Amino acid sequence: MEILITYGHREEDLASLPIRDLALFVLEREGKPINTEVSISFVNDTAMAELNERFRGMEGPTDVLSFECDNIDDDITAADGPSCPVYELGDIIVAPDVAARQSTEFGNSFEQEVSLLIVHGLLHLCGYDHIVDEEAEVMEARERELLTAWTERDLPAVSENR
Q: Which mean pLDDT values do the consecutive 10-residue runs of the chain (162 residues) have?
């Protein structure tokens, strides 16, 4: 799997975060093939506001946008190997300034908020949505499940003798 990251804004705050590893973790958990490619870009509020208006008709910056490339409904089961063509799942655009404001508002760390936005964006590329309540419940539950598994992945086993 290939995760292409572009730090167009706040690289000094983002480059040390495990963004690539988190994206790989989510894509593997979602069963995406080895030849999957995703791009993640970090932009300032002005660029995000322009994208939000252009593609969603909404004013002002949003926190994350996802743009699907290859159709998620394509049958890619036979295309899971190193000699297969790249499966371009899509692009995720994140506004780290919005993430910073939301982290303060919701009581998360900056890394937690960025991680949530990455997972949210990836789940959109994997076919999840939150337009109707039932879909939102499924997507939010999957976000929580993935973020919990991500957080607990490196925790040492606790001895039963403690």
A: 96 96 97 93 98 96 92 54 78 98 95 97 94 92 96 64 44
CA-atom Rg of the chain in angstroms:
17
Instruction: Provide the whole-model pTM.
Output: 0.86
Distance of alpha carbon 21 from alpha carbon 17, whole angstroms: 9
- CA 36 to CA 16: how far, in whole Å? 23
Helices 133-152 and 19-29: crossing angle, nearest 10°?
A: 120
